[in-house]
Batch of 3 targets.
Target 1
Amino acid sequence: MSKEKKAAASTAAHLPEHGPIDPATGKEILLEVKHVDITFGKGDNAVRAVKDASFNIMKGETFSLVGESGSGKTTVGRAVIRVNPCAAGEILYKGVRISGDIPKSLDREVIRNIQMVFQDPAASLNERATVDYIISEGLYNFNLFENEADRVRKVETMIEEVGLLPEHLTRYPHEFSGGQRQRIGLARAMVMEPELVIADEPISALDVSIRAQVLNLLKKFQADRDVTYLFIAHDLSIVRYISDHIGVIYKGNIVEIAPTEELFDFPLHPYTHSLISAIPIPDPKLEKHKALYTYDPSIHDYSEDKPELVNIGHDHYVYGNKKEIEEYKAIREAGKVVRSITILTEEEEAEREKQRKSEEVSLTSGEYILDTPLHDTGNVWLAVLSFFLPILGLIGAFIFRKHNYIRNYKQCRKGALIGLGLIAAIVLIFGILLIISIL
């Protein structure tokens, strides 16, 4: 992007009618996430939840962000709707920067054009409000109706489109099932006629039979209204049905991005491989003998050659250092579909069971499962007790340090040192006063 365009992106007060065109595909780019870092906390307690995240979402398509719990999926989605601030990088909507400080007029347009469907349908709805008011709230805030009759018409039309009835509008959220509440949340978002909807695991809290209905609703709205989705999920089998592109995120790093079938045919990053291998097989006999591939991040050596997200061709991006990228390119150019799911023979299954039992024995013999103990919370009361009992505090700090309870160790050490310092000061003052009294 030229300097002039960058300046325009940072100072625009309103959104343009269309976004920039991707020269490679000729499609309109609706959302651009560029080298975004998201950090929570400050100083020693700072946690870098998202690291150098970059991806584009084309208008009218579904981009799915997949990863295990705590990987940073929802954090990215909340950054797009301007809830989580970006520590670095920027987010562009139709070529206009929407992250950081923006004009109030632009902020209102972003709220109007980008809506979110939340994971928990019970917690995301106001229990004190009727369904009619919940769906109408956005219409009231942005004055998106001509008169009361127009508002009622819009709300009734939307409630019917999501599969509910107009008589449901006078009821409260607690009177509905989980699937019905999620439909209400979807109606609340869609009545605003948004261009981009962030669906944050909208089906994970629902029964399996209801999931398909909600997914079909999302596809229906996309076909009828040309809605674009950022779909956040942890289940690759679900996103394969709904997605045009899939991004895989691991501990804040986006490790792979590709078109849906490209990703399933050529899962190049080991973490993607592990996610696909975890997809259940409908046949119980095959599922029983399936070999799960477990991702081990220690296989990467990034001490000198630092990794980055690289396009290896075929619109396929993979995260790795130069050596790994060359290996990924070679696999992809060979054109042979990567086998992600392996079914073991009876002999291989017996060998795996033998290995599993030997690992259990080694763990019970004294190996630590967690690098950081579960109860290493650094409770402030440890510092308080160590302040009043500094000798015991130093003993406790030594024990915590020996067993890798680093946070608890720091609290005990801090309290004990302050307590000993106070005692030393009191003794010194008392000694000086004693000497003065004698003289």
Target 2
Amino acid sequence: MGLTGLDIYKQLPKKNCGECGPPTCLAFAMALASGKAALESCPYVSDAAKENLGAASAPPIRLVKIGTAPNEVAIGDETVIFRHDKTFFHETGVAILVGSDLDDAALDAKIAKINDLKFERVGLKYTVNLVAIKQVGGGADEYAAFVKKVADKTSLALILMTDSADAMGKAAEAVAARKPLLYGATVENLDAMLALAKKHTVPLTIHGKDLDETAALAEKASAAGVKDVILDAGQRETAKVLVALTQCRRLAIKKKFRPLGFPTIAVTSEEDPLAEIVQASVYVAKYASIVVIKTDVKEQVLPLLTLRQNVYTDPQKPIQVEAKLNAVGAATTDSPVYVTTNFSLTYYTVEGEVSASKIPAWILSVGTDGTSVLTAWAAGKFTSESIAAAVKSSGVEEKVGHRNIIIPGYVAVLSGKLGELTGWKVLVGPREAAGIPAFAKQRFSA
């Protein structure tokens, strides 16, 4: 049973300095007991307390890192089952599977497609994170050579997938500097795989035939000194994988069951690409830390990455763009200036309609903590004062030769005071962004 907050408090320095975040040592102790704080946050904790409290106060799911900067993948370290309780912190890593039986031409084409799996949507950038290299036939030397070829062609983090300790050893040696994830530790080869993970200081996937066996293998790994473990519960049917992932998450967080307190990995089994993406989506939602898929087609991968972004977006923090002046088209000193908020959906809706008008313009996005026009106005964040401050700080006065500014029709009430504060002529635009093209053509087409 884990230590209580009072048990932990007794071993803290009791300075109540607040440097750890919470205002008092007791509050910090309670946060440690609930897995919502890390012992390292206290700068004054003694070595004896670190030794006594280290395991007891560790997050329920260990943080594990794969690869190297700038493409390092951090997974685990989650503290809640449902994101509305707090939020999820480390999004699921998506890995594309590559078989070692590909010839050079096929490998070049495959890696080129993987490297091109990059998207930008409403100001957010989506990408896959890893390449999973599976041994398909061939000997240890052939596999190691193939792994080296892949590593030379992509900067993404690597997963080495083979049950052969000999092949894993040679492949890991070939790309040791990339800090790959070793996938393939089973009952039969556990000792050899643990030795490789310790030698290269890299994370290791434990693969049991079921959850009980996986937990037992994870305990052996921890006892052997391998702490960076990722769990594969050994199932491949969607429903069974979902049950195993959910059990891992609940037992780790609710029961503090340390043998399952590690990130998890799920490998898809569906052959049809669309069915595979549906299967992978289930694993992203609950609760895989890494999902390995076969398809590399952009229009099939994008929905999965979009879902991941939705799941791992803080529900208490709206998606927002940078509050600044943006040019749409070849904006000049004569181009009109529109004002909106920095809520992503609002901004990109306005930008799309301004672009559709075919009249280059400037858009000034005002910082409103990512809230829409009416919400921000009602909350006192989109006001004459905030817009005037944005006008002054954005540099728009140097970008345009006129002094006309367009505000959304729903906040026409701001026009009078805004004009007084800025000295600009305030034009009231349409209420809805859809009205911008007609408004622009009527006012500025000449």
Target 3
Amino acid sequence: MCAIKPMAVEDWLKNLALAPKTKSHVRSLMHTIFQCAERWELIDRNPIKLVRVKGGTKRLKTPRVLAPDQFHSLLPFLREPYRTMVLIAGCLGLRVSEIVALQWRDFDFPGLTLLIKRSVVHGRVGDVKTEYSRDCVPLDNAVIEALMLHKTLCVSTPEGWLFANPATSRPFHQEEIQKNHIRKAGVAAEIDGDIGWHTFRHSYRSWLDDAGAPITVQKELMRHASIQTTMNIYGKAMTDSKRQAHSKVVEMVLNGGKPEEKPAISAIGS
């Protein structure tokens, strides 16, 4: 361990055939390992502290964003429970790891709120991604109506999972849903380009912009730490503002970009 030099690690990372962000993750893991060694007094200092990864925070591709009418056209080509999962992704902007981890006890239907407090990745139940992710999000009545319909059809489990695989009574694996259902639905809906779970979260953020939501409201609805500086400047968004912005997005999504129409029950679950 004492033989590891910062520049040698930098050169090694530079020559890896990986995306800059992936290299950054490798560097972070190495930093944690050597930090443990430093704490255990196996080495005098952590050499990875001085390692830099060029472009480690930049995306190689611009995130895909759907228009509300494109999202709306996708839904008829998805069967349940995947349709309801995608509907939640589009209307609430949740990460897929949070969607498959939802339990009925997380919902306060009288209070029109949902508490995000866990995630499931590759079948393993764990904590949410960041401290900012653990938060309540508002629920529009149209979303609640879709959830109530889903509750009559979903697999019942002791844990109360919303989306349990009938064969295992455990949460679905999101990768298979993206590959076998979402992408095929995108082709059937004649939507150009590849569509995945991240597409819906990026689209939700874009729809918040279209709805005129202030940046502080967007930050709280996304439960994202990347605009923390903006949050510090503008302060905490009020619940009413969050609910109004959320409802506008739900209205656009369920009516294919026609906010003047009231969402029909048939549009959210049939």
